[in-house]
Amino acid sequence: MKSLGKLILFLIVISYKAVSAQEAQNPIIFADVPDMSMIRVGDTYYMSSTTMHMSPGVPIMKSQDLVNWTLVNYAYDHLADSDALNLSHHKNAYGHGSWASSLRFHEGSYYLSTFSSNTGKTHIYTTKDIENGPWRAHEFRPMLHDHSLFFDHGKIYMIWGSGRLHIAELEADLSGIRAGTERTLIEDATLPSLPKGAKMGLPAEGSQLFKVNGMYYLFNISWPAGGMRTVIVHRARQLEGPYEGKVVLQDQGVAQGGLIDMPNGQWYAYLFQDHGAVGRIPFLVPVGWKDAWPVLGEAGKVPGKLKLPENKGLMPGIVSSDEFSRTKDQSALSLVWQWNHQPDSNLWSVTERSGFLRLKTGELTSDFLQAKNTLTQRTIGPTCSGSIAIDVSQMKDGDFAGLSLLQKNYGLLGVQMEGKDKSLVMVNAHTGIPEEVAKIALKEQRIFLKASCDFRNRKDIAQFYYSTDGSQWKAIGNELKMSYTIPHFMGYRFGLFNYASKAAGGYVDFDYFHFTTN
User: What single-letter DSSP state applies at residue 390?
Assistant: First the structure.
């Protein structure tokens, strides 16, 4: 009997460990996926996010379990035509472009709205097929900051603002605000998060409105001075109010987002956390209900583990390696890639040389941050590396091409052409001012470059390497101390670049980009 008891205990322990090993962990995505808006259609979840100045814009991700996500589409390829959005004539849209989106499904159609300080407009995109499109674009003035699109009783509304929140009805054709419908919804939505005498840092914003069991719930974020990012919820029995509000979560700075339910009746809040140089990373927080209020977390805390399927990793759903192998009728890039600003389509190709990405030089610049057609994808935590093989035989005098870690305080390693001589150069801009910290002569026409990132415990350190054979790597230059800066408002991204300072017309061919987790 004792042996049988030990066997049963052993099996119970093994079973428990197996179940535990399959649990999801927070953050659900250890990468820059901020300002999420999420919906469920049947048993499928869709999520939109912010990538601001990147193109294409407003990424859309899909999941069957709330944990493992795959990029399936973007709302637009081209936001508007301007020098800032096109990264032309010494202008840029860093930290701007399009901001927080609102994703909705209503009567068989998907609606995705966003706003842009570059255009001064509110943009709404609609489609019957969220994964394949096509999207129909609508736009109007003014730009409605951090708005929430909402359908109720046959009408379309938007709620927006900072501190003082507004509501208005939209025209049925989405051409603008219906005249005479705008009014103040909540005079000061920040108040529930302000202890008596406390000062406000960031007033309530990031509105997302939901209707659950006939009650309206408005989610916002605030940031009390000296405190942390805080989740506020206001509720009302009528859309127009009156609303009562309270703080529902204040832990680890995890905040800003909304509610999502599962087919089995479970509820979660999707929120994000500022996490240093890797960016703003998504968390899921279990939600219970008490006295018709959502109760977030476990004893008010964000759990490290979730009773959901395990995280299977972000490759290839969010980031991915690429061999650039395309047939002649496959001229598009995979969805993991975004251009730094809107690209010049005449200056890149994946078909001119089979199995390679070709980047050609165009508008002249000596500033990496003004270089057109830098192709990027996210870095991920806790550690990751990106490596390339590049053919530099067709570079011209004054050209510079290679691998970068893109943010305002960037780092890069590339091949620089001076006259007929090539050099391998590492540039470190961790102070905000680019500094050439290493330079060695290069004879090879094909070179291998790599950047490795360490985001563990917000260490935020990167090191660049080079190789002449693709297997033996040598460190070059010094460590890049990565830092998240508000001017770019984005986590660090790997970037493939090529720009000219003297004459256009040169080009380089990237054989591959390999993404690994260390």
Answer: E
Of the chain, the end-to-end C-alpha distance in Å amounts to 48
5-51 pLDDT per residue, tens: 444 444 434 444 444 458 999 999 999 999 999 999 999 999 999 99
Give Dmax over CA atoms of the chain in angstroms. Answer: 86
pLDDT tens digits, one per residue of 307-337: 999 999 999 999 999 999 987 666 789 999 9
pTM tops 0.85, yes or no: yes
Q: Which residues of 233-270 are buried (b: 16+ CB within 10 A; e: fewer)?
A: bbbbeebebebebebbbbbbbbbbbbbbeeeeeebbbb
DSSP state, residue 380: B
**Closest C-alpha among 70, 137, 122, 75 to residue 103:** 75
Residue listed under structure tokens 């609102």: 102
Distance CA 219, CA 36 (A): 13
From the list 367, 391, 383, the residue with the least C-alpha distance to 451 is 383
Residue 14 corresponds to which tokens in the numbers above?
């093994």
> In Å, how far from its chain's centre is CA 459?
20
